[in-house]
Amino acid sequence: MTAVADPVHGRTLSRGMRLxxxxxxxxVLIVLPFVAAMILLGAYSLNLRDTTGSGIGFSVWQSFxxxxxxxxVIWRSVRIAALSTLITVVxxxxxxxxxxxxxxxxxxxFAYVALFSPxxxxxxxxxxxxxxxxxxxxFVNQMFGMVGLGPYRMVFNETGVMIAIVHVVLPYxxxxxxxxxxxxxxxxxxxxxxxxxxGWTVFRKVSLPLTLPGVIVAAEIIFALSISAFVTPSxxxxxxxxxxxxxxxxxxxxxxxGMAAVQAIVLLTTALAVLLVLERTNRSTHAARx
Amino acid sequence: xxxxxxxxxSLHLILAATLLFxxxxxxxxxxxxxxxxxYNAWPxxxxxFDWYRKVLANPAFQRGAINSLIVGVISTALVLxxxxxxxxxxxxIRMRGITAFKSVLFAPLIVPRVAxxxxxxxxxxGLGSATGLRLYGTYxxxxxxxxxxxxxFVVAILTASFGEVDPIVEEAARDLGATPIGAFxxxxxxxxxxxxxxxxxxxxxxxxxxxxxxxxxxKPAVNTLPVEMYNYLEQYQDPTLAALSTLLIAFxxxxxxxxxxxxxxxxxxxxxxxxxx
Lengths: 290, 277
Prior knowledge:
The complex is a heterodimer of chains A (290) and B (277).
Chain A: H1 15-45, H2 59-65, H3 68-101, H4 105-116, H5 123-134, H6 139-146, H7 158-182, H8 186-194, H9 199-228, H10 231-236, H11 244-253, H12 257-289
Helix pairs in contact in A: 1-12, 3-7, 3-9, 5-7, 7-9, 8-9, 9-12, 11-12
Chain B: H1 5-32, H2 50-57, H3 59-92, H4 98-106, H5 113-131, H6 139-164, H7 167-175, H8 180-188, H9 193-209, H10 214-217, H11 225-235, H12 240-273
């Protein structure tokens, strides 16, 4: 685009001016408040609004990090998110592979609608549905009862929380994996098979390494979603599964703003740390392929 | 060389089982909304429409639904109006520092929503006592919060769409004497109509469904519907919520499937299945 000194269109606004007009309103009205809020979060974690009388500094951080209980909560949040991510990827991979092999157009549309249905249904309705299915006298336990099993405890504990999390994040995992699978020419696998490799060897040596970047992208998205989930662990955990996000919410009621700010930053940092590790892995697999 | 039958069948079995898993909680909610038992007894002892009557007569849900509609419509209009020029600038004009700008713009996608909710709560209360600006517990505050969450999605969808429009069309319109805004309206806008529609629907649904950020910044008078539902579910578990959920599922499916398909089905299907978010 040649906007400067344009002989045909006559006087045109300078590029800086156009950028300011196009980006300015959205930036000032929406982006800036977000940035200000995040800065304020940092300030509050440093005891800016001095509620404890200990002055500005790291006193809130100290009391958070020195409490063993908080580390248990961090560990629980990471564990639930990591396990949910692992389970989701293990399910999403064959599901994506199966979707590529569906020939019937109507079944394919139905499969897409079913897979993506959690995105169209309120998180509250979904959690409620899982409570109905998994409760002690719920549908699943009644099915188990018919064959003489159970009842199993699946709500108000980590099992229930993870089932519901896997349910909602699965579509986000299928998309990137499906995306990368479609980019791999089938001839690679066929060649390996023709050369006498077994199906398992082909998967391990050809298909999986080629699709690994998609799997890592999926894992990144899912982990970020799982660790920040609030409604699902709150409702399925019934207040008995204390995660970082739930802890943060509980603190608001107590007006412990400094502590809540620290917890919000810890939550954000944990999510980012895992994302960075996965991103680095992704880069090294890219490098290894070249 | 052919794949083994065993492998093909196991893949299809996993897919079928997964689809059942995905639909199960939704199906049970719909069935349970007609369950005559207040304790969700299963299998249902009888069937009734009572829960639907209860939902429709519940003042908290009525007010919540109206609040959600107001907030959803205004915040969607706002992010489309502000996000379209931003996406145009990002897609068309080269600039220095674009990476830094983008990382700030897209940051709300990475920051956990509860953290955003708390940060905005602190900002709103702080601004309120410093300047008298009333954002905490007001429509303005909730609309702003939802816009923060929705803007990155809208800009991402529209930037990709602007990238597909050949700039030469717009230049031709300008050469033929159109004003910059006229050229945009006549030559560019018709080509991004589909993306605008998808971005708009996506925004509205995000807003209509948002709880995790909203919980921090509402007061009872402006409670949105999901917030009312969350509060209800923390106390009761009778099928009232099943009836409400069923109504909402029907509403969302109508918005998502019927409206855009009436406009242009093939376009939407292409966007939905192309693997881009």
